[in-house]
Design a protein that fits this description.
The protein has 12 helices and 23 strands. The longest helix has 32 residues. Helix content is 36%, strand content 16%. The strands form 10 sheets. The chain has a 4-stranded antiparallel sheet with strand order 1-2-5-6. A 3-stranded mixed sheet has the order 4-3-7, covered by helices on one side. The chain has a two-stranded antiparallel ribbon with strand order 8-9.
Length: 517
């Protein structure tokens, strides 16, 4: 009896010590994994038989991305940088961790049951032989092993010939959804540089465009859209990044603009959309909403008036002439002159003669107007709207369709490569050789004038190493953006800044970002 009592006492003490060790391990796991603990069923009471914890464990793979496909839909191929986690369940026996190992099961929403079983067996083998010994908690070690070794154990590869495959399309959609959510969280909690004000801000304070993924801080993007709205830009507003053809989506405009500004933008856009489709019947003068978008199309297009049943040409407003080119204003004027001569001297045709003279005046005025427009403007190569060049460089941007083109040759261009590669001239000379040396920016002229009035000390100046233009420091910031070529310059070392700005202003470089002018 004494031996039995002592054995019972020993078993009881071991069980109690295991309970205490398990409680301490659970507290540590909660501190480490926090929201990764999906399920927990641990109690100090003896009635709690099902003692277990389930942890979501991520996978680490030493590649920028993995390519997955579906065995049933082989044409669906995706590239992801994150995978959904494994759900690892640990069931703890009474004498864990002193005398027994926990029962471990692994489940996944994208891996097959066979892959999960293989991973579980490899984990059991590793824990029993290498990682742990009795009286040692193993949950954290097991999760770390899965994090570092799951990719290699499952044979995930970056080979383009042997794609990673899942057995149904639903699992592929789960992988896509997890990758999108993880990328969004990574964006929100990392630093990003605004290309407009150059501030470093967290993703929570930035706005990211859907298509091009360019970012800008909320205040700068709002100011960018307000300036374009003030200039009565219609349609989708362009992205603020350089040489980007994407636009700010409508749902983002609704977020950053106030109610009145967004309503104004909608009104301007709707007005332009309808204006491009409005036609006026030359016979009854009724307004017609047609589907003809381009008045200057190379092929004539017809418009039908439902009021007077008149079919006319959308380009010249004459009667519909299929297969024939539109008549020139000179031809119309010559034809009217012949008719006027025919009816002159006939008193009975006074009304007809008056109407012919009225039409002649209208056509003559329109002819003079078109001649003037052709002399002072160039047509956009995309939408054919007339655009007047009133100064600046020869790179033109259409305010109607946002197409960039050369003012001299009329070709569509992007950026300034057209002028640098031996094409047309910019500012009356080649962009690389004829840059004006004293073409001061108006803001710099005003700053220099104010400085000369209030102090005798000259303001620091630096010549841009790229375009050789002079830039004046008027603030405490040693970072400058050249007013001519938009290069990033340091006022301290007078050199170009390459890469991220905050990496240039470090103690090792010897340049400080802020100092007195």
């Amino acid at each position: 009896m004494a031996n039995g009592s002592e054995k019972y006492a020993d078993d009881y003490s071991v069980t109690e010590e295991c309970k205490m060790m398990l409680q301490e391990e659970i507290l540590v796991l909660e501190a480490i994994f926090a929201d990764k603990i999906v399920e927990k069923s641990i109690s100090t009471s003896d009635e709690c038989v099902n003692r277990q914890v389930t942890i979501a464990v991520d996978i680490n793979f030493a590649y920028e991305s993995l390519t997955f496909t579906c065995t049933s839909e082989e044409e669906d191929i995706i590239s992801v940088g994150h995978l959904p986690p494994f759900f690892v369940t640990f069931k703890f026996p009474v004498n864990y961790p002193m005398l027994e190992f926990p029962l471990i099961s692994i489940k996944s929403c994208w891996a097959t049951d066979e892959q999960c079983s293989t991973l579980t067996e490899s984990l059991h083998t590793t824990l029993s032989s290498e990682c742990c010994s009795p009286q040692t908690p193993i949950v954290y070690d097991a999760c770390q092993w899965i994090y570092w070794n799951a990719a290699s154990e499952l044979g995930l590869t970056t080979s383009a010939e042997n794609l990673n495959a899942v057995d149904n399309l639903d699992k592929l959609n789960v992988i896509i959804s997890e990758n999108v959510n993880r990328n969004e969280r990574q964006f929100l909690y990392s630093d990003h540089e605004c290309p407009i004000c150059f501030d470093l801000l967290l993703g929570f304070e930035m706005m990211r465009l859907d298509e091009c993924q360019h970012v800008a801080c909320r205040n700068c993007l709002k100011l960018h859209c307000e300036v374009l709205l003030h200039c009565r830009n219609f349609g989708a507003l362009p992205c603020p990044a350089d040489d980007c053809d994407q636009t700010v989506p409508t749902h983002m405009l609704n977020t950053i603009l106030d109610a009145n500004q967004f309503a104004q933008w909608c009104e301007i856009t709707t007005e332009h959309s309808l204006k491009s489709q409005l036609r006026y019947c030359p016979r009854c003068y009724k307004t017609i909403l047609s589907d003809v978008e381009n008045r200057d199309s190379s092929e004539p297009q017809s418009v039908f008036c439902m009021s007077c049943y008149y079919s006319f040409c959308a380009s010249c407003n004459d009667s519909w002439h299929p297969g024939l080119p539109c008549r020139l204003f000179a031809d119309k004027l010559s034809e009217l002159d012949d008719k006027v001569k025919r009816y002159q001297g006939n008193k009975r045709s006074a009304a007809v003669l008056e109407e012919l003279n009225r039409l002649r005046r209208i056509i003559a005025d329109e002819m003079l107007n078109m001649d003037t427009v052709n002399k002072i403007s160039v047509p956009c190569p995309r939408c054919k709207v007339a655009i007047q060049h009133d100064g600046g460089c020869n790179k033109m941007t259409c305010s109607r369709c946002n197409q960039s083109f050369c003012n001299l040759c009329g070709r569509r261009i992007t950026g300034y490569d057209h002028f640098r590669n031996g094409g047309c001239e910019v500012h009356g000379g080649n962009v690389r050789h004829a840059v004006p040396q004293r073409n001061w920016h108006m803001g710099q002229v005003m700053a220099i004038a104010a400085q000369r009035i209030h102090t005798d000390m000259p303001l620091p100046r630096v010549r841009c190493p790229s375009c050789k233009q002079m830039n004046v420091k008027t603030t405490f910031n040693n970072h400058a953006k050249c007013w001519y070529c938009k290069s990033n310059i340091c006022y301290s070392c007078k050199k170009l800044i390459h890469g991220k700005l905050y990496l240039h202003f470090t103690p090792s470089s010897g340049c400080v970002q802020h100092s007195l002018p």
